[in-house]
Amino acid sequence: MRNFDVLLSPSPRGARLARLLATEQLRAWGLPLDPAAHIVAELANNAATHGRVRGRNFQLLLYVVGDTLRIEVTDTRADRLPHPRPSITPDSETGRGLLLLDALADRWGVSRGLPPRKTVWAELVRPATESPKPDPPRSGQTCAPYAPPTREKAPHQTPPLPPAGQTHSRE
After folding, report:
1. Would you tell me which of 27, 75, 92, 133 could form a disulfide with 58, CB atoms 3.0–4.6 Å apart?
2. How sure is the predictor about 45, in pLDDT bands with cuts at 50, 70 and 90?
3. Do residues 118 and 77 lie in contact, with contact meaning Cβ atoms separated by under 8 Å?
4. What local confidence, expressed as pLDDT, does residue 103 receive?
């Protein structure tokens, strides 16, 4: 299992750093950056905006189990659980984060931790990689033409064994 864990300040700078660190970690693991980087940005921004408590950091945790990447952001405002807004107008400046999360993640949710913590998590399931397919048959010559074996000795034969009772020196 691969994992990455960091504590960050609940500020715009901390949210931006969460996205940058997650992006570099995903690169190091050889995982696609999208949509994971967008999800990290949204969850970290929510933690810095809605989960902010002066003097308390938020935590970013990424881990991979099998073909699933799980992204968790834990803050210290369990009294403020995220909830989708039913009516968002085109001119609304906020309120689209959970709609974005819902569209990008395969699964997401909220877990209450030890008071006063809550964790908003999202999972991305990577599609199984296809095994390489064999090359289709091709017409035409693929190697040297077949030549039947001859009765000639091979040019590099093993030297004969010494008569019984004699040994070779290893010089």
Report:
1. 75
2. very high
3. yes
4. 93
CB atoms within 10 A of CB 41: 19
The answer to whether the CB of 124 falls within 8 A of the CB of 72 is: no
Crossing angle for the helix pair 12-29 and 36-49, to the nearest 10 degrees: 160
Q: Could you give the CA distance from residue 129 to residue 119 in angstroms, rounded to a whole number?
A: 30
Sheet holding 2-8, edge to edge: 2-8, 58-65, 68-75, 118-125, 107-112
- Which residue type sits at 165? G
Find all residues with CB under 8 Å of 48, minimum gap 6, and list them: 9, 10, 11, 12, 14, 15, 58
Rounded-to-integer distance, Cα 81 and Cα 68, Å: 25
- Give the residue from 53, 107, 105, 42 showing the smallest Cα distance to 78: 53
pLDDT, tens digit, for every residue of 54-95? 889 999 999 999 999 999 999 999 888 887 766 666 766 666
